[in-house]
Queue: 2 jobs
Job 1
Amino acid sequence: AQSVAQPEDQVNVAEGNPLTVKCTYSVSGNPYLFWYVQYPNRGLQFLLKYITGDNLVKGSYGFEAEFNKSQTSFHLKKPSALVSDSALYFCAVRPSGSARQLTFGSGTQLTVLP
Amino acid sequence: DAGVTQSPTHLIKTRGQQVTLRCSPKSGHDTVSWYQQALGQGPQFIFQYYEEEERQRGNFPDRFSGHQFPNYSSELNVNALLLGDSALYLCASSQKSGWYSNQPQHFGDGTRLSIL
């Protein structure tokens, strides 16, 4: 069975500082990995994905994520946080080449302090 | 280009009642998936519809059922509502060509269902 762990329920960072939101996964075979963001009372917005190739993936709004196969991790990063980045972030996984649905982590609440 | 739209936005029901939630997929999408997001948790997959048939199902009881119409829109029905059914119900759309590929699903803003 596939699973995703987001070990931090809450991450606080000062505006202008770099941010990292952690994600580890478990899946049979090679993974497709995704990050989504959710603002209050809204649905999920796609940020970025890892499929294959370069381990560093760049996405929307200046976010990037680093895939580490040996550590089965896919941490979300941003060099300089904005107050407007404050939201709930979800990591998700599914096996590559499979029609199986996404499995989401429990989410990490990011708060960027002015 | 309209994205995924869901209705209603909020709904209050009592235990034992039945509810129907509706979803219109993003233009060009033919597959609809439903997720339940309980407070403080990540979305949990309920089921997926394509060509008016349920194609995949998560670990949800038969009280949860659905339907897809020829125009690709979809309904989620929940019977005999329980307090634990209180959640945000999200609809996501995609293209069948994306099932085995890397295309992300597009989510609506959800229906907030509260059971009293």
Note: The two ends of chain A are 41 Å apart (CA to CA).
Job 2
Amino acid sequence: GDSVTQMEGPVTLSEEAFLTINCTYTATGYPSLFWYVQYPGEGLQLLLKATKADDKGSNKGFEATYRKETTSFHLEKGSVQVSDSAVYFCAPRGANFGNEKLTFGTGTRLTIIP
Amino acid sequence: NAGVTQTPKFRVLKTGQSMTLLCAQDMNHEYMYWYRQDPGMGLRLIHYSVGEGTTAKGEVPDGYNVSRLKKQNFLLGLESAAPSQTSVYFCASTQSGSFYGYTFGSGTRLTVV
């Protein structure tokens, strides 16, 4: 089945630092790839996605590129803000039968200090 | 556009009591899910449904039952609550097709004492 390996947290950065959260996946077929964000006390929200190789998803200054050759979808942001403090989840969704179940990693907790 | 609505938002139960959590979506999504989230455990799938009248077990189904009598609603039941079921429960929905993401509710915080 599908699986995902995410960078272990927690991650603590200073404001305006560069952020990378690593994500690698295994999935059957040709999956779509997603990053979700969970702010304190809230549910998960879709942050960005990419549906084919070399696609770059972007939103709120975050970016991630679908790298099929390395099965990776690393999340990056050039200058983080305190408001980016949250838990981030990487998730592949397979293209074959069985794609009804999205596989989540354990999440990476990010804390940005002023 | 409400998206996914979960009720209640908070609940305290005594061991052995029963309750039902309601999830409602207004996006005409085929697929619906119940997850639980515990510290350090990420999201774990309890049950899911790929259409009205269908349900299937996820990775942690024991102690829970579900029903999907209407397309827009997905109910999660605890017949005899246990302290191990203290958790935050999230409902989610999506369309068929791998390029669609999930829409989540805001969660139900359940404490079993």
Note: Chain B touches chain A at residues 4, 31, 33, 40-43, 45, 48, 50, 58, 90, 92, 94, 96-107 (CB under 8 Å).
